[in-house]
Amino acid sequence: MKEEIEKRWDEILNYLETENGISRILIDTWIRPLKISKVKDKDIYFIMEETFGQRGIQFLQNKMYDLDLCSAIQVLFNLTDFYTIHITLEGEEDDNPSSTDSNVYDQLVEASNLNPDYTFDTFVIGDNNKHAHAVCTAVASAPGKDFNPLFLYGGPGLGKTHLIQSIAHYILKNDPTKKVLYVSSTTFTNEIIEAIRKQKTEEFRQRYQNIDVLLIDDIQFIINKESTQQEFFHIFNILYESKKQLIITSDRPPKELKKLDERYISRFEWGGPIDIHAPEYETRMAILTSKAERDNIKNIPVEVFEYIATNIVSNIRELEGALKKISFYSRLGNQKITVELAQDILKDLVSNEMSGTITPELIIRTVAEHKGITYEDIISSKRNQEIAEARQISMYLCRKLTDLSQQAVGNCFGGRDHSTVINSEKKVKDKISTSPAFAKDIDVITKKINPN
Known about the structure:
The chain is α/β, with parallel strands linked by helices. It is 57% helix and 9% strand. The strands form 2 sheets. It has a 5-stranded parallel beta sheet, with helices on both faces. Helix 11 links the parallel strand 6 (213-217) and strand 7 (245-250). The longest helix has 17 residues, at 385-401. The protein starts with a helix and ends with a helix. The model is unreliable at 95-99 (pLDDT under 50).
């Protein structure tokens, strides 16, 4: 691969200019002089001329050109893995610059409360999460710069925790001096309660104020916990002003965190909230096959993967749990797994999944995926024809497939009036009666929502 990068170096530099928007002057001054040293595993090593000094390396890292260079190489060489760029001065190269000894790294991972499996290498990228993944890799490359705080939101089991912990792993691997900490909001709350009980709130604050990268999961659970909110935002302000990286997840965007003070909501929006939603069928299949490969699961036919991916649609944890359950049964008594056996093994899981999917959120997401637009488009105030029709279809199906009243349905679409729902129902019904193609399309969407 080293030789290929050398041969296509000009092509890579042109890509940086045309696709990543880096000026030709900066490319010629700072990036063109780099010489590739080697490619080892998923690390690419470059050497910078000694005349640039350490300030030159720092300049590249601060401007995130290393990440842009990595993305260019990934795209042009059609690579699926996330590669790390290392830059050293001439005469200072070693076998593994900027990386952490494996034993030290394992200790740092444990001390930071990280899951060792939650890395970029094991994260499956799809249309549902590619924007969130891109932002997270940018944050990992330059913590405390852009997207601070990083606010990632989406439903449970969609990979938010995996993605944010991938950032932490990347940072620790490349800079073991960073103090990184991952906590759930429940753990954070319990620590505050314990600190108050033992009159050690100052010690608690000092611990968190010294963190370089703080990751807090499920921030929605601190709402209505007054002491927890106060302590969190005290720490938030100190870390933010010190240009330390804050990473937060939630099951909803900031504006939907009801009962949370407006000043806190505005803080969460400083870095630009990023959403992650349910994976489409192709990504669900990729998750299953990737998980099977990592866990060395070899005796499950593709038809069983297809059954799981078709019937478990809204939660990646349940998707992987279904595969684990199937794998267990395949080893138990050396049984041959068929679709019929999988249906029996997973009947409770699939039944629960399907019974829980007929909700406005699932309907909207299914319509959005079918129409090639986003969930946010449908619930927004956008009025172009494509989005307006998708919104009308979503409202119609919400009324048809759930027991919600017209006003309740309207509330799911940004608080629209019940008359809007009535009008949408009428338009869809009229078009179904006059357009066989449209009627068939509605039938296809309905079956996607509820195949049974």
